[in-house]
Amino acid sequence: MFLGIDLGTSGVKALLIDAGQTVIGSGHGSLDVSRPHPGWSEQDPSHWIRACEDAIAELKASHPEQLAAVKGIGLSGQMHGATLLDAADKVLRPCILWNDTRSHVEAAALDADPRFRKLTGNIVFPGFTAPKLAWVENNEPAVFAKVAKVLLPKDFLRLWLTGEHISEMSDSAGTSWLDVGKRRWSADLLAATSLDEKHMPSLVEGTGKAGALRAELASKWGVEAGIPIAGGAGDNAASACGMGTVGAGHAFVSLGTSGVLFAANASYLPNPASAVHTFCHALPNTWHQMGVILSATDSLNWLSEITGKGAGELTSELGDVLKAPSGVSFLPYLSGERTPHNDSAIRGSFTGLAHESSRAVLTQAVLEGVAFAFRDSLEALKKAGTTLTRVTAIGGGSRSRYWLKAIATALQMPVDIPADGDFGAAFGAARLGLIAATGADPLAVCAAPRTDAMIEPDAALGGAYADAYHRYRALYPAIKAVTA
To answer: pTM of this prediction?
Structure first.
């Protein structure tokens, strides 16, 4: 048996798989987020341990014999969080989370230093770890003076599990301190935030061994002491391992609250100017890129609230046959946009409204607007040297075949729908635990799930969609010009 532990923002999931990668069972522990001031988002790291213990206890209660047979553990977690420890590994303050924006001034200052984009391949976003440390230095100097180690959330769990300070490449790539091309800490970037490599954990690949389970916990869980724990991955890279998106040219489109176009790469292909994230992947000598849409299904949920109709009701009004764009356009920038604009101030809009613009027309425009936002990410990835020929769809929005047909037609490539199963971050973490424990071939283990169906672009509507995308592209500068 192999165990995957995923530390999310709202909870910890522990997933048990067997040697054939069949999911045996899972457990869960809940987490809350503290928001003491506007723009702040924090968690107490001790709550992560409690939630992990809850998840393992649930798994032990339901599958004690299978849990006892665990031979490897993998970790996944929310990225970018700043967990600050003193010389005795005592937590100095609540962890500043990925969605905390207090360090926007510090982020802009670091991003103005050309070394950051050159070495990390990314814009320095306020959510990344380095600007958070700069904020602590500026605003909590007594805390900063005591910092001996900075750990990402899942690596704080690793410290509890193993007693060691270790991280891996995919999560560390989101700190703004990693030389992403060379897969090592940058002394220059650390120095820019008054830190050095002594403040950082050691680095391994996600498939490598990164500590062993402490005897005390092994006894409590009813497993062998010394079980190897894999380096693991940040949440998106772990999900990619679960989806089998690990080889060059493999990609998935995630239709969740936010949207992600994730592409695996065999080489380092940065494009920070288009707000594409370029990070190390969890597998050695592999990288990945992500285009990020801030409001994907959130856009449909917004329309659902406005109209008083459920999201499923709205999409069902469109039927199953893809329609030509109506002339009504929607920009899905309800909370700003990441790729390709990196614009937190821009806001969404409908244009082209007329008396005949029915609710169904508005729904159609929302689905098309999100599809065109994914096209923007595809174009940004192309500029970075990534060529895709098909994508796999995941996330709640992928239940709408109409939406997937719109995305396939906007991207001009097939969209695959995987067979039912749990292919998320905890499953990817379990796969990494299996690889670290057995030495199995990572590409063989991280295979893609069976494809249940394939959605082809609508060839007859290709021209109409191309015209609608050109209108969509012209709207951002026009709307920006009148956005305060």
So the answer is: 0.90
